């Protein structure tokens, strides 16, 4: 990485799951010197923001309308890196990506931070996520998709929508018949935020198009065992046949995103334990990746 490269960064989606953590990571002791300050924070209604606010020299909070190209262009003028942390708002994703192109951004990090849907062999609501990346790449912007499997905080110790309810001592795992239970990669919000900051500081031409991170990887049955070791309370683990579950989800053409998370997990598509970039991302800016056991123990 060039020691002289210090990009101007804009972040959209402060109110989302990764928003504040990512801003904190960009302005952390590990990363703050890598960027030109202030960080630009794009918000629909900055005056209504109830969270912590950084001083003007560190972050500037800008009101934007994703339906108004002129306002977006003003907010992104001279920006080098655009980080999209918006929730499931595909039209806003496209507007932000188009504005990034018009303003000459060198790097676009699209709204991903979940399963690598490029691997899916079935239709899912995640297809719209790929559209934003393809569009930005077709415009010539270096676009880096970051996949992290499951966010720990969404599942542990309880994420019943994913089949995990450790406090009530029950786990339901989608498993292929006659096969070992697949591993699933879990990454904490803080670690994903640090990974985003690490990518943002890199010279764009040296970055890959896709990066996987995996704070920790294990089966759902192992989650139950970790809870048992912590609490000495027995956890019941049940299995759901993958083929039957898949048929049910696809026949109903379900719009419930959780079904596709579970389907991908059962297919083994959420296991990034052998292809993650953790060590590369933390090289030179060391931090400790959080383990599943730490999350379960509340550490």
TrEMBL record:
<feature type="domain" description="NmrA-like">
    <location>
        <begin position="9"/>
        <end position="260"/>
    </location>
</feature>
<keyword id="KW-0521">NADP</keyword>
<keyword id="KW-0560">Oxidoreductase</keyword>
<dbReference type="InterPro" id="IPR051609">
    <property type="entry name" value="NmrA/Isoflavone_reductase-like"/>
</dbReference>
<dbReference type="InterPro" id="IPR036291">
    <property type="entry name" value="NAD(P)-bd_dom_sf"/>
</dbReference>
<protein>
    <recommendedName>
        <fullName>NmrA-like domain-containing protein</fullName>
    </recommendedName>
</protein>
<dbReference type="InterPro" id="IPR008030">
    <property type="entry name" value="NmrA-like"/>
</dbReference>
<dbReference type="Pfam" id="PF05368">
    <property type="entry name" value="NmrA"/>
</dbReference>
